Amino acid sequence: MFEKIIYFLYLNNLFRACIFFSKFASIFNKKYQRRIFFFNYLKKKRKKIKKKILKIVYQPRIFIFNSKNNRKNIIQKIYNYENLNLKNEFSYHGHKNVYQSEHNLNENIKFKSISKQLEKSVNKKISKYLNFKKLSIVRMWFVITKKSGFIKKHSHLNSDFSAVYYLKVDKNQSSSNGIKIYNDLGKIEICEFNDKKNSFVVRDLRKKFLLFKPKNDDLVIFNSYIEHSVNNYGSKIINRISLPFDLTLD
Ligand SMILES: [Fe+2]
Predict the structure, then answer these.
(1) pLDDT tens across 21-57, in order?
(2) Architecture of domain 61-249
(3) CA torsion angle for 121, 73, 243, 216 (degrees, to 10)?
(4) Which of 10, 67, 87, 144 is least surrounded, with the fewest CB atoms within 10 Å of its CB?
């Protein structure tokens, strides 16, 4: 019964009420505690979210597929980026040995075509799966992690889905390296694209987190509310490069 009430309130943007009911319901069943952070996250957005979008994002998902792009060319553009090595507002987020570009690369003349290409590749694969016409890139940046770089646990607030495209990563990574995606809601659908079947193969993640070890050209997409962190301890290559971007459904 609680489940239905909370879901009804959720679809009507009543996130405060969702938090209240979840806290009350958790007296009887602890599982209701799990979604409180999610409702808090939506409350922080301070905007009305369409019912259709709320239905899509309720079930947390991770999409994994391969996207062939001209990586050499993109890496060259990154090294030519005019503000490379200058400190910016993203330098002090408590991360270690990490350089981030400004977050508006999708509007930068040199990166616009890459952003459009990635957007096309994402839509080709997942918009049909989500039954939504188009996902749009609203932010894109690059991240260079030096040896032993570390990005602390965080989530992205101003988007519906967040993605990372891997440009340069180690082939043989140590066991704890990779992107750690936390399963705070207890069940994440992992949708991994199978090229032979030309469709996603779906499995449920029940463990506390997924440690994803990317290869070059891998693209991983997950709900923006899902917390994640990156560990690059003992990496053999000096610069590990990725291209994260945020997507919205409206
Ligand atoms: Fe992130």
Answers:
(1) 999 999 999 999 999 999 999 999 989 999 999 999 9
(2) Sandwich (2.60)
(3) 80
(4) 87
